[in-house]
Amino acid sequence: LNSFGKIFRVNIFGESHGPSVGIVVDGCPAGIPLAAEDFFTDIERRKGGTQKGTTPRKEDDLPVFLSGVFNDKTTGAPLTIVFENKNTRSADYEKLRSFPRPGHADFVASQKFGGYEDYRGGGHFSGRLTVCLVAAGVVAKKILLMANPALSCVASILEVGGESDVELGVQKAIDAKDSIGGVVECVVKNLSLGVGEPFFDSVESVISHAVFAIPAIKGIEFGSGFAAAKMFGSQHNDALENKEGKTTTNFSGGVVGGISNGNDLVFRVVVKPTSSTPKEQQTLNIQTDTIETFSVKGRHDLCIALRVPVVLEAVTAFVLADLLMLEQQVARR
Ligand SMILES: Cc1cc2nc3c(=O)[nH]c(=O)nc-3n(C[C@H](O)[C@H](O)[C@H](O)COP(=O)(O)O)c2cc1C
């Protein structure tokens, strides 16, 4: 449903054009310094509006603390943070009652929730909710640094539309008057050996679980990923170099047997091309039951991958914070 984690439990709520979106984090350790300014850098990285290929919708995204913070420190009680929705244009979405967007959640949401869902701006399925993931990530990154000040979690775009030159990839979509996808890689350095709870809460399982909550993610691979299928075992095996677990290569992506092995944790995700494309498509008008020509108007990201790195870092951070707390490497206070 809308909560994730065993000890550091992230709950997410809100809709794109409702009054606000937000999170409640239960199990957050007490005494972590937390102020609005701590969120600005990551929240700015997620915003659209400035970069070519992102939505013109711009929100100020100031975090409002409703509970769990007192005298600029977390209290140990549930941490509630909301972000108001101010820049909405709901009229853009009226047409979608007749034309559920191909590739978007409009049709399945309407079928599952009997037409009661808030469809404005994609409602609860909107990329807007990723501001909540980023906020949880800001808190989780602090917890990771408490566990190990040398730990870093950095995601970056590897390619857009098959081009390693991001500008070129975005231009491809602009020229085609269409949308485009991409690949984003996340690297976690200095994660201690021994994190991960096999069988079902292996590092790969829990990261994948959280990563697929990010809208528009269609695939994930760790280390060598799908390329491993074409390798010999002798090539793929990461040989041990020392007793700390350092290996000569890192085809495993830093996880063996579901447990972190002391090398960099490396994984890549596939971000699909935005379903809301200006390009004309043939699709069903569900009011008239006829196939008609349709194209999406309104404000959309041409390339969602451009906004994903900070979101990917955030979910990775809250997964690892939870695993470290399970491992008792971080105390509740
Ligand atoms: C940061 C971000 C921004 C997004 N912006 C848009 C958008 O402008 N238009 C759109 O159609 N989908 C956008 N999406 C993706 C949809 O929310 C998503 O495709 C939809 O909910 C269907 O879910 P699925 O693609 O995971 O199956 C965005 C996703 C993210 C992570």
Structure at a glance:
The protein has helices at 37-46, 106-112, 130-147, 166-176, 203-211, 233-236, 308-326, and strands at 3-4, 9-14, 20-26, 64-67, 69-70, 73-74, 79-84, 152-160, 182-189, 217-222, 255-256, 259-260, 265-271, 281-285, 290-294. The protein has 333 residues and is an alpha+beta fold.
Keywords:
five-stranded antiparallel sheet; four-stranded antiparallel sheet; binds flavin mononucleotide
Explain this structure to me?
This protein is an alpha+beta fold. 23% of the residues lie in helices and 22% in strands. It is built from seven helices and 15 strands. It has helices at 37-46, 106-112, 130-147, 166-176, 203-211, 233-236, 308-326, and strands at residues 3-4, 9-14, 20-26, 64-67, 69-70, 73-74, 79-84, 152-160, 182-189, 217-222, 255-256, 259-260, 265-271, 281-285, 290-294. The strands form five sheets. A five-stranded antiparallel sheet has the order 1-2-3-7-4, covered by helices on one side. A four-stranded antiparallel sheet has the order 8-9-13-10. The protein has a two-stranded antiparallel sheet with strand order 5-6. β11 and β12 (259-260) form a beta hairpin. α1 (37-46) packs across α3, α1 crosses α7 (308-326) and α5 (203-211) crosses α7 (308-326). The chain is globular and about 65 Å long. The mean pLDDT is 95. Flavin mononucleotide binds next to α7.
